[in-house]
Amino acid sequence: MMNRVGFVLRVRPERLEQYRREHQAVWPEMLEALSRHGWHNYSLFLRDDGTLFGYFETPGTFQEALDGMAAEEVNDRWQQKMAPFFEGGGDDHADEMMAQLEEVFHLD
């Protein structure tokens, strides 16, 4: 069974276009690591006000998926590159600021 995970973050409004461009060319080794650690059907949705909604499905828990990625060197490099794009984090990694959303409805 796959668990559905939704989360939100805030992208700095002045960095929206660059953030979009960066995600047109995610590093292949980052994509491989995400798949290896259970990030399936992963999507990001971005509003013009900087609200970022992420969604993925995983066989484990959200924390297990995060912990798996935390062990990957490529994730550390990606998170360092992305840190300046997010509000409220300074140099914090975005994956440490993700606010998980509670699923309240799902239509099967």
Structural features, described:
The longest helix has 10 residues, at 73-82. This protein has helices spanning 16-22, 28-36, 62-70, 73-82, and strands at 3-10, 40-46, 51-58, 99-101. It has 108 residues and is of the alpha+beta class. The two termini are 13 Å apart. A 4-stranded antiparallel β-sheet has the order 2-3-1-4, with no helix packed on it. A hairpin with a 4-residue loop joins β2 and β3 (51-58). It has 4 helices and 4 strands, in the order βααββααβ. The relative contact order is 0.25. Helices cover 32% and strands 24% of the residues. The protein has a single domain (3-101), classed as Alpha-Beta Plaits.
Summarize, please.
The protein has helices at 16-22, 28-36, 62-70, 73-82, and strands at 3-10, 40-46, 51-58, 99-101. It is of the alpha+beta class. The radius of gyration is 14 Å and the shape is globular.
Properties at a glance:
single chain, 108 residues, alpha+beta, Alpha-Beta Plaits, four-stranded antiparallel beta sheet
Largest sheet report: 4 strands, antiparallel
Structural class: alpha+beta
How many H/I helices?
A: 4
Helical fraction equals: 25-40%
Q: Order of SSEs, N→C? A: EHHEEHHE
Distance between the termini: 13 Å
Strand content: 15-25%
Number of domains: 1
User: What's the CATH topology label?
Assistant: Alpha-Beta Plaits
Give the second-level CATH assignment, the architecture. Answer: 2-Layer Sandwich
Strand order of the largest sheet: 2-3-1-4
Mean pLDDT: 94
Q: For this structure, what is the CATH class?
A: Alpha Beta
| Rg, Cα atoms, Å | 14 Å
